[in-house]
Design a protein that fits this description.
It is a single chain. The chain is an alpha/beta fold and 497 residues long. The chain folds into three domains: 133 residues, Orthogonal Bundle (Fumarate Reductase Iron-sulfur Protein, Chain B, domain 2); 161 residues, FAD/NAD(P)-binding domain (3-Layer(bba) Sandwich); 168 residues, FAD/NAD(P)-binding domain, CATH 3.50.50.60. It is globular, with a radius of gyration of 23 Å. Bound molecules: flavin-adenine dinucleotide. The site of flavin-adenine dinucleotide (FAD) has 39 residues, from α9, α13, α16 and α17.
């Protein structure tokens, strides 16, 4: 522990954000890294509390508590305080393959369970993580680690999201020949075509993919397994196959008028927008353009917030976000005590931007969409809603009741449905003959084997739509299992052993 009284001497400082009025005019990252001075102060706030809950990585009451990849947080907080960045980087890379992603966009469950956060705002762990890896790249410490020896084993990873990338990275380091098959035109999964550029710049993703290529991983993009190569062919060509295909089947809102022109899935909007940005700097017209439109985002989560921020950059006329649940509290309730992930009202980057542009927070709570109304051309013109009341049913579980007399009509020409995901797409799983349960690939956590010989599964495809940090956890764990399967023993680390 660097400074014994640091947690009393210094307050938490937030990462500086670019002015919302100016940042919505471009697609660059909205926040800026801390200066070294602030980083040192923030590192000094860590209490090195003996039992670091920030590292525990448990699911409590359905939410992630502490870091799922057990980052050695107090150790590198101390090193950041002392300015020993190269040493901090070594500690960070022991547990996290891609801190440049988590340091930017992880919801930081570590901070929710930080011991300082019992009485004060948490240590700024995520900003310190980002600084460590950014300095690693800036100072040339991140060089390709080409394995000295190769085994004669070959592994296919299907899907290049964080789970696929983490498993490929680990297995390549173990000396296996790894090929990543990706159906999109660029690698990265939702890191590339999901999370928008202003949250995670695509140069950051491409830099990592390039490094992995230099280390010997083969990436085959525009290669859809099941179409461009069959499941059978893939199994014949490789000693093991890992399904990391994500959980991208979107939940639909099947209500009256759903077929209206202008009602889209959120992911279709976000993906096309990023594709257009990367391909032509927004000069082509192939994306869904929100310019001049009244936009409604249905779904109160992060995907919905990303749609708001994207629509603002398209210069929409107005934007509103519908959430089914009531507004969250400002401080912890009795049912959500430390060290659980704090279920609190927060103002995301997109909400700040919408407030700056239109004067109001774009969120509306406890609202249910009833129908979409289109004009004679089939183009969306209105959305009809009703307010909802969240009450306990007879069995004690929460239910939502419509409140009579609260019907409302909203003018809109564009709607984005962002109400979650239903699991992995089934076509490929059927071709592999892989069992599913609860709309996920049936493979036990820690084991990761499916019912099909030499076929493993990890990440959102196995777990359901989750977080990057869990995808990294699963990528590393499945690599440990696959290495053992191929070699009879393993040199790869596991969080579980
Ligand atoms: P994915 O990232 O979904 O990657 C799966 C890949 O498999 C895709 O590239 C897909 O094209 C490919 N694929 C599928 N089928 C085939 C096939 N047949 N052949 C070849 N390739 C195939 N998490 C956070 O922690 N922080 C955030 O800020 C955050 N923001 C998000 C924003 C959005 C809009 C969304 C949708 C999710 C967000 N998440 C966030 C969640 C996070 O991105 C996912 O949990 C994570 O990417 C899952 O990783 P994965 O590798 O399992 O799958």
């Amino acid at each position: 522990m660097g400074k014994t009284t640091g947690f009393m001497d210094y307050k938490r400082e937030e990462a500086e954000e670019r002015n919302p009025h100016t940042r919505i005019k471009d697609w660059k990252e909205y926040d800026a890294p801390f200066s070294d001075e602030v980083l040192s102060r923030q590192g000094a706030r860590c209490m090195d509390c003996g039992t670091p809950f920030c590292q525990i990585g448990e699911e409590i009451n359905g939410a992630t508590t502490g870091c799922p990849i057990y980052n050695l947080i107090p150790e590198w907080n101390d090193l950041a305080y002392r300015g020993q960045w190269e040493e901090a980087l070594k500690r960070l890379l022991k547990t996290n393959n891609f801190p440049e992603f988590t340091g930017r966009v992880c919801p930081a469950p570590c901070e929710g369970s930080c011991t300082v956060a019992i009485s004060d705002p948490a240590v700024a762990i995520k900003s310190i993580e980002r600084a460590i890896i950014d300095k690693g790249f800036e100072n040339g410490w991140m060089t390709p680690r080409v394995p000295q020896k190769r085994t004669a084993k070959s592994v296919a990873v299907i899907g290049s999201g964080p789970a696929g990338l983490a498993s490929a990275d680990q297995l390549n380091q173990a000396g296996h020949t790894v090929t990543v098959y990706e159906r999109a035109d660029r690698a990265g999964g939702l890191l590339t075509y999901g999370i928008p550029n202003m949250k995670l710049e695509k140069d950051v993703v491409e830099r990592r993919i390039k490094l992995l290529e230099q280390e010997g991983i083969n990436f085959l993009v525009n290669m859809e397994v099941g179409k461009d190569i069959t499941a059978e062919e893939l199994k014949e060509q490789h000693d093991a196959v890992i399904l990391c295909t994500g959980s991208q089947k979107q939940r639909d809102l099947v209500i009256e008028g759903r077929e209206a022109n202008g009602v889209h899935f959120a992911m279709d909007y976000l993906t096309a927008s990023t594709k257009n940005l990367l391909g032509s700097d927004m000069q082509e017209n192939e994306f869904i353009d929100a310019k001049g439109k009244d936009v409604i985002v249905i779904g109160g989560g992060d995907t919905g917030a990303d749609c708001i921020a994207t629509a603002l950059r398209h210069n929409c006329n107005s934007v509103v976000q519908f959430g089914k649940h009531p507004k969250l509290p400002l401080s912890r309730t009795e049912g959500n005590m430390w060290p659980e992930y704090p279920n609190l009202f927060t103002v995301d980057y997109a909400h700040k931007e919408a407030t700056a542009k239109f004067g109001d927070d774009p969120r509306t709570y406890s609202i249910q969409t009833k129908r979409f109304i289109s004009d004679d051309n089939g183009d969306l013109k209105e959305v009809h809603t009703v307010e909802m009341e969240k009450v306990r049913g007879e069995d004690g579980k929460f239910i939502f009741n419509e409140i009579p007399g609260t019907e409302k009509v909203w003018p809109a020409q564009l709607v984005f449905i962002a109400i979650g995901f239903e699991g992995p797409e089934s076509q490929l799983l059927q071709q592999f003959d892989v069992n599913t349960s609860n709309r996920k690939v049936d493979a036990k956590y820690g084991d990761f084997t499916t019912n099909v010989d030499k076929v493993f599964a990890a990440g959102d495809a196995r777990r359901g739509q989750s977080l990057i940090v869990w995808a990294i956890n699963e990528g590393r764990e499945v690599a440990h299992k696959v290495d053992h399967y191929l070699m009879g023993s393993t040199v790869l680390p596991s969080y579980l052993h």
